[in-house]
């Protein structure tokens, strides 16, 4: 192995007697070591059984091809290190009465976790058919990575799991999310060394700067360096102790090393080290809680170095196995067709001495069962791992108290987001230990600064004098800000999955950073619906603002509303998208989302001042319907309509209303209908989504034979996709963002994408067959007005006054 420093070679070896930062002073007796290692062997035996066997679970006869699964799927590489860590956490749970959750970060490391749940008896309690006997073990083995069974991650079917580990990079942020406001909880987060190479994981180490030792629990990371990913070395496993120590001290941690492969000495070293770390955590918390003053310590962490696939055969067919990338996935292949491989597997599994670990019926022997904690103290039975059990509804103020009571539709202007912040302020004030507001450094920018009157931003870093003037920093805040969308999203997911509530606010253009995280959370929620023992958790609420249509100074790079497409692809059982057109609708939507469970709610609302459209009761009714005709903006009452203007989104609604007004002003003989959509999934057929409308409802709103000019906040093809096969679909003409932008004024950006009032009005004229050529002069006028507005923007750097201060020009019908 090449190295720039020969001294590094020895320091990064995973083999030999244990080497540790904390020198063991015989924390374990020889008898304790024997029992712990036997428990470890039982776990590893189960891990192998899950990978390979569908029969003969206790090896009562030599392995035969018919005992082997037809398809051998799963991963072995991190199982030993994860089981090893879990077992040593168990010892301290019993010794100190700890409350411990376990996060499995390495990808596909589920066997190590599932084996522990089975040995603790929790798996049998949750799945009574997986009994603690030979038949139950047979079923337990067969179901793993098997059709109709369970996946190779710590999926929702896994007791005690809130984190699959398959999508790498979020174990630490999820772990911190669980311990915020859980002062007695210690979450042991095992981080794979491949996972540690990801950007999200790198930023999440900074989470200690937001952890309050007075009111929060603690995270004990175990960075598991086993050397390899699928078939490449891992970076952190190939650097020296000095570099690793410097790296993690720089992050603000105190790292403790445990390294080696000799099992008895490794048990001693791990027992001493993890106990030292737990006592350090308790000391920090006691100091902070006695003084009732938060401070930022260097929290302890463990760097555990073991061979990849620890305890596997050293080599197979002359190729290195244990300690090399070949142990990452299925360690011995072709066992059903290669007799020598089958014999090797048989020998390997027997090396764990299952006949000494399990009684004649297949149950773990009593002296080993006694090593596990009892009841909910068992890690896989911890209620935090099924956070819906702990969830309590928020104490909610009446959102009606925050509405704009007197609205002149289409005339009154106000800041929807600024006003909603008052509601959010009081939600925070009334839920001091169960609600947090998350965001990437944008709460003030997003016009939510009112919340600071209830609670400031969590900050455990250094304070400067100038922070007193608008810094809004505090050790006990409820607002969580870090300029890493990955980390704040991970915090919120962990917080919600462990039984609490939250909202993430973010600029719309950069929410794509967490696309894959939201994907995985949606999949988690959907799978939980199939797992009957999983209690429902609070919804994941994502509030998007600084929207595409108001990025005139940031330009093209900040113009992307495509997150809605990502969310719309997810299961209709778990996703909702709302685009409230004004402030009262925004309040109604937020109240609904904060009360909901088991959804990902996406709310899109611009932060700038806008025209308001609906009074409180009208807004509530409109949001309840999800889509409806705005009678005050229509003039087709009692007659056949000629044209339907429709909108979804606040800016899109403003321009669509202005277009409807132009048609009514210049072509007053036309009957115009205005429809607004606030719940995007109302557009889908009722057969495809719970919020979808029937074709009969569709016809009543949009007609079947009249042109529909639909102005949409996001990409127009999303509406076309959602309305596929609707009656009269060919009459639907959607305008939305078309990837055209620059340093534009708001109206110029709308013109570029044909969502401005003049383009919409021209489209309407072109789509009404009865007009023939009679409206040509009006059409030309709209073209001239559009050109004039564009020229004025280029000349003055601001939209014309009649554009900026447009108001609905017609009397409102009572």
Automatic annotation (TrEMBL):
Keyword Zinc-finger recorded: no
UniProt GO MF annotations: aldehyde-lyase activity
Compositional bias ranges of the Basic and acidic residues kind: 1-11
Gene Ontology process terms (BP): carbohydrate metabolic process
Gene3D superfamilies named in the record: 3.40.50.920, 3.40.50.970
Pfam families xref list: XFP, XFP_C, XFP_N
UniProt domain Xylulose 5-phosphate/Fructose 6-phosphate phosphoketolase N-terminal: residue ranges: 28-389
Domain Xylulose 5-phosphate/Fructose 6-phosphate phosphoketolase C-terminal: 607-808
Essential cofactor(s): thiamine diphosphate
Region Disordered: start-end pairs: 1-27
PROSITE patterns recorded: PHOSPHOKETOLASE_1, PHOSPHOKETOLASE_2
Keywords linked to the UniProt accession: Lyase, Thiamine pyrophosphate
Family statement drawn from the similarity comment of this UniProt entry: Belongs to the XFP family.
Name of the protein in its database record: Xylulose 5-phosphate/Fructose 6-phosphate phosphoketolase N-terminal domain-containing protein
Organism taxonomic ancestry: Eukaryota, Fungi, Dikarya, Ascomycota, Pezizomycotina
